[in-house]
Structure formats: C-alpha cells, structure tokens
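Figure S4 source data
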Amino acid sequence: MSARTLLFTKSLRSRSYLSFPAYAKSLQRPLSVSPSSPLNASPTKNELPPLPPKQWIPDLRARLGKCIIFGCSNAQISRAASVLRALAVEWKDLVAGSEGFLTGGRRGLDGRQIAWGEMDSFQHVNNVNYYRYAESARVNWITNFAVHVDSAHRQQWAELMTPKSTGLIMKSLKADFKFPMVYPDKISVYHKLRCKPEGDPAPSNFMLDCIVLSHQHRRVAARLEEDIVVYDYKVARKASMPGFMLQLFHKTWEMQQAEEMRARTRIWELIKAVEGLEKETWDREDAVEDMGSAVKNSA
C-alpha cells in the first residue's frame, strides 16, 4: 500500500467516513446496477431514474473504503475523495431531492439542533416533538412564498397563517416513525406537495408530505402526511384555493419534479463512479491486493 493510500485511509477512519465492518463482511456490491436496470437500458432524456437503495450512503462509503484498502493509484484516490466529498456535502439535498423535496432557503427547518430536554424517559426524542418539527417547517414553507417567492401577494401569504381572512386549517396529521433519534443530533425538515392541485373550481384542500432528516444518521427519521383545508374565517366555512396560491403551487410542483430528476440522476452517477473504481481495483480478473511494505520487506 502506497504512503498516500495509507495516509488517506487513516484520514477517512479518523473522520468516521467509513464503516469498516460493513464491507469486511461481504464482497458483494448490493448497489450494483443489474443488466436489466433502467439505467443500463439507455433511458430516454425525460425518464425518471429509480430511487436508490435505502442505505446507499453508508454502503458507498464502505465500498470506497474497500477499494482504498485493496490499493489505489493516486488518480483513483482522487476520484474516491471526490465521491466522499460529494456524499459529505450533498447528502441532504440528494436524500430529500430524490423524493421531490426542495431544500435551501426557508423552505423548512434546516440544521435545527435537537435539545436534550426533547428526550423522554426512554432516552429518545419524544414522538410529540416530531409534530412540532413538522409544524415549524410547514410555517416556514408557507412564509417562504411570501418573503422570497411571491412578494406581490406577500400579505395574502402571510395571512394564511392567521385567522384574519382566508387561512389554513389542519384536517389530519399522521406520522410514521422510522427509528428513534437521540441527543445530540441535528434535523432538517422539509415539505412537498403530494400531488398537483387542479380542478374547476379550485380545490379546497391539499396534501403535504413531510420528512424529518437526522444529520447523524443521514437518513429519514420520520415521515408525516398532512391534509390541509383552505378556510374562510370571515364566513366560517371551507373555501376554494386562491388563484395566487394555485398558480404558485403549480410552479412548485414543476420544481419538485425537476429536483427529483436531478437528485436521482446525481445519486446514480455517484454509484456508477464507485462501481468504476471497484472494477479497476479489487473487482478485476488480475486483481492482486497491495499488502504494503511489510510484505515486500519480508520477501
């Protein structure tokens, strides 16, 4: 193993980028694309790539670690570092974006620190807090339109969160908890439209999907679905979605579709890059592991 490879491997270990037991157990590549995969079938320009496997981030790290330990050239080390850098920097946008969630700005909660007091006697974040996270993110999602997107209707967007005129009422809120989060951790919470609101007259309700991302685990900790009703407080009854709201929701839906395409394409590019490194290192017919200078000196 070259000095640069050894130094890079130690650096990865110190930064907890790699889970060495994970790839030591098996030589299989669970994220490999099969010949029948849509990505190998020359998809059309507008064809949406499939969702990646659930554990694609830790799996890619483990597979890169195996390539590095087996022995890489300087150029291969640089390519591996590029993928690891992308996983470290882009993971949040890719995990959320692959399902159509828009990140950045004030579209939700971004990097919110979990408080120690939010844990309960079972030493994990109490379930009630997930509803609060979703509530705060939903308010940010709505007010983002007023502040950063549609300044012409800023007052109307702001009033949606008040009982002054046309507002929003939560009809139902359901949660699906994936794993227990504990302190310390950070979360990012995002919303998206479940479907494009259409109809004549305009619909009086809409569905939102919400995800709570754990920064420590870099995956979804909880999913929520929200059924929201447009309500006219002046006449005390349901109302059709205002025109400015319907128009902007249509644009938001298109942005969600575009982000879903971009994020999935990027993820599969990273998977392909790792597969390329595997085929150039341990997964080639004449592969011989670099055992380092100790073996050479003993010969």
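Figure S5 source data
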Amino acid sequence: MKTEILLLLICLGAVTALTRKQEAAEQSRRRVASATTPKKQEPEEEYEDDEELVDQCPEPNGYFPDAEQCDKYYDCRDGKITDKLCPDGLVFNDFSPQHEKCDLPFGIDCTKRSKLQKPQPSPHCPRMHGYFAHEDPRNCNTFYYCVEGKFNMITCPEGLVFSEKTGICNWPDEAQKKGCGSRELFNFTCPKVNESVAATHPRYPDTEDCQYFYVCVNGEIPRRSGCKLGQAFDERSGKCDWARKIPECKDWYKDQLTDEELDALENPPPKLKSTSGPSRRKSSRPTV
C-alpha cells in the first residue's frame, strides 16, 4: 500500500513539473513574439491644428501661406512672424502678399497644401462657412450656404444641379455629380441626327411640360431649358412664344393664370417716356 502511494506521489510530481515547464516555454514564446511583432502604427491625423511655426519671414512685411495647410498663413511685420488661421471652411488666398484674404476654396489651388484645420460642424454645415450639397445624394438641385455655422437652403433653377467642385448651379453634364447626370434626371434622350444638324444644337419639346424644352448640345447631351412665364416652346419655330398662340399648349396655363393675367403678360403697358424738357433752371455760375 505504501509503495502504491509513493508511486502516485512521484507521478503527480512529474506531471506538475511537466506542466510548469510547458507554461514557462509558452510564456517565453509569447515574449519573443511580442518583441518581434511590429507595433501597429496609429493613423495620422487628417487635420492639422498645431503645426510648428516657421522661424523666419520670406519678406519683412506681408502675408504668406503655410507650405502644407491651406487655411493657415503667416503675418509678417518688420520681420516678426505671427501664425494665423482662416475661419473654418475658408482658405487663405495667396494672390498677393500685400492682402490678408481668406476665401471660399473654389478657384484656389490647395493641391500642394491640402491639410486643413479640424472642422466645426453644425446642422447641414460640415464646416462653419461654405456651400455644401444636400445630405441626400438623390437631391441634386438643393444645397446649403453656411455662414458662422448657420445654414440657408437654396434650390437651383430648373434643369440645373449643384456642383460641389465650383459651389454653383450648373448643367448636369458639367457638374458631373454622381447620380445627377442627364440620364438620371431627364426622361429624354437626344435623337440620332447627322453632323450638320448636331452642330446646330437642336431643340426638342418637353412632352410633359409645355414651358420647357431640351437643347441637345452637339446633338448628344440634353440640357433642359425653359420659356418665361406665359410662354411655351413652339416645336415648329424652335423658339418660345405665347402659349395661347400654340395650339397644343393654348390651355397650359389655364389653372395657373387668369386670362387677365395672361393678357397683361402678353401686352405689357408701354413704358412712360420722360416728359420733362430741358432744364430751365438758371445756372448759378457767375458770369464774367
């Protein structure tokens, strides 16, 4: 019996020693792996707020752009340099060292100094200042004008879309906004024509709206345009005319304007000519 107990204790001791040896080996392996595995680098910040100040002015006096950050610039006075920052959403316009001017980014080349300060967003305004597209990418003609973080919603004229590249309303083919091209917006395709007709940029009526028509640029790219109030597009002449003169559009404004209002549009009162003759006021200049 004593012999069996002794053998059991010896076996347990051997197992314990083996387990401890395996644990020590595993810990050693982990330490080696940790030392040889490269640490994950933290992503660089996209925005710059605390750039190191340059140590000298390019010229004793003037305003000079930062080399990397487009909305940062330097004010030099008698060789003393002060770093400055444009309001959020504006960038420094470096057209002249004599002028301190922050402007909207459209038309200012920031390709070589593309960094910007951290944005200060508010409802509908990704930055405090600027023109910004509607949050819904399917809304092509609405955008926001933001000043001091407060927005004003603006709608483009019929047939135009907001261009994020220029900050203005433009033709769909020029704005090149994804999902807002001519094919997506208009239920119209330019008919195939020969080169001589295509060169005239032919016009075609909007079959769903008498006031509007399509201009096919070079016979291929449709642009939707319109006539002024009270008029309609005449397919025969290719021009706008009073709707009541065009048989297929004579009743187009029936539910929008009264006959009296249409008469006033078609026959506006003549402009009154000035009835005053030459001034009879005596000159106050003394005669010699």
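Residues 1-22, 24-53 have pLDDT under 50 and may be disordered. The longest strand covers residues 72-77.
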